[in-house]
């Protein structure tokens, strides 16, 4: 029975009745780091749904904080991830290729995965027709391929501004995974007319935007939050593999007083055996190859289909 409030994009799947997930080398947790590398326009076009800044444009103060992340914070973050040999999965506004070529070069030289966070972080999908939204997706695909040689496999709508048609359009464009649905701690198959698309665990809870900005946590409290999230997923991952995402923003985590607390969290996670340090693409590929079909078949049975 379908509920009015159900977006009808995925099946209900009770945590206790799923086929077991296994990761490479019997890891308990697939851990991935997803820096949001973004470009904010000072005077973005006005669109439906929401404003890009909390104050009237031009919001120079908020613009310069974002600019700090690209001038300074990104480079601190990149050095830290290099120290831990973490291959980041970059949630990328592709306008970075045009406006910040040094950052784009730094990402591609490190062989970091580039997945999409739209074109600008000041332009959203709200109110778009199917044709307009598909045009954005195809533009992003072509831009990433042209500048990096990478195929686009993952999608996070700018400001999570997905529409009811987004998932079907992603499949049509050949995308493998989406982060727009915050539904689970394990990858999940989606309901589609055709094709396959994985909902990969992302997190607004471990996101530095939420921890440091919305909740206003002191940096070491944010560290404690990350470690607590990892501890629970690590314990549960002994029974069936879990996923932990760490989404961060250079303009949030890149301030001097926040770098060392994040290092403490990475020290803690990297100090555990049984952790698969992966990219979003690698997690999605493994799940598609080993678990997607069995999970979808079981969910359809539970739904009586």
What would you note in describing this structure?
The structure is a single chain. This protein is an alpha/beta fold. It has helices at 60-83, 96-99, 101-109, 130-148, 166-172, 208-214, 219-236, 250-253, 256-270, 280-290, 292-302; strands at residues 29-37, 89-92, 113-116, 154-155, 177-178, 188-189, 198-199, 242-248, 275-277. The chain has one domain (21-297): TIM Barrel. It is built from 11 helices and 9 strands. Strands 1, 2, 3, 8 and 9 form a 5-stranded parallel beta sheet that branches. A 4-stranded mixed beta sheet has the order 4-5-7-6. Strand 1 (29-37), helix 1 and strand 2 (89-92) form a beta-alpha-beta unit. The relative contact order is 0.20. The model has no long low-confidence stretch (mean pLDDT 94).
CATH class assignment? Alpha Beta
What is the CA-atom radius of gyration, in angstroms?
19 Å
SS-based class = alpha/beta
Fraction in beta strands: 5-15%
CATH architecture: Alpha-Beta Barrel
Output the helix-strand order.
Answer: EHEHHEHEHEEEHHEHHEHH
Query: Could you name the CATH topology?
Result: TIM Barrel
